[in-house]
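Appendix C: a fully annotated inverse folding record. The material below is reproduced so that readers can follow the format used throughout the book. The structure is listed first as tokens, followed by the designed sequence.
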């Protein structure tokens, strides 16, 4: 694609300083980086993905309110963390993180674990305990 053909469809980056980078041919036939504010097919795909994530997060939130999962499960989901990612960031084993997704185990957590999870999720401990 040529520089002037790089898509500039208004998308999820319109109100941001961020831009997607595409490689395109300039007038001399060399590849160069071109910033784009969006491309409609990509914007639509991302919208569908975020909608799906939001639905899953709502289901987990309901599970938390019904006492089936811990608030940690909800906060991890909305930040796109799974047990493996949380384990790698926290230094806590994946098995232990999975155990803490159970409400009874989460309620038993000491301040050290709670603070570690809160720090990783960029929130306060009291926020971590709620949905």
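Designed amino acids, in order:
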């Amino acid at each position: 694609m040529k520089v002037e053909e790089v898509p500039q469809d208004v998308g999820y980056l319109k109100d941001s300083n961020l831009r997607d980078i595409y490689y395109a041919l300039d007038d001399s036939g060399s590849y160069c980086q071109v910033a784009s504010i969006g491309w409609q097919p990509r914007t639509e795909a991302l919208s569908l993905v975020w909608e799906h994530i939001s639905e899953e997060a709502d289901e987990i939130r309901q599970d938390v309110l019904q006492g089936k999962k811990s608030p940690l499960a909800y906060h991890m989901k909305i930040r796109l963390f799974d047990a493996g990612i949380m384990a790698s960031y926290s230094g806590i084993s994946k098995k232990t993180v999975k155990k803490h997704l159970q409400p009874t185990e989460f309620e038993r957590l000491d301040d050290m674990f709670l603070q570690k999870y809160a720090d990783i999720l960029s929130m306060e401990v009291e926020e971590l305990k709620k949905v």
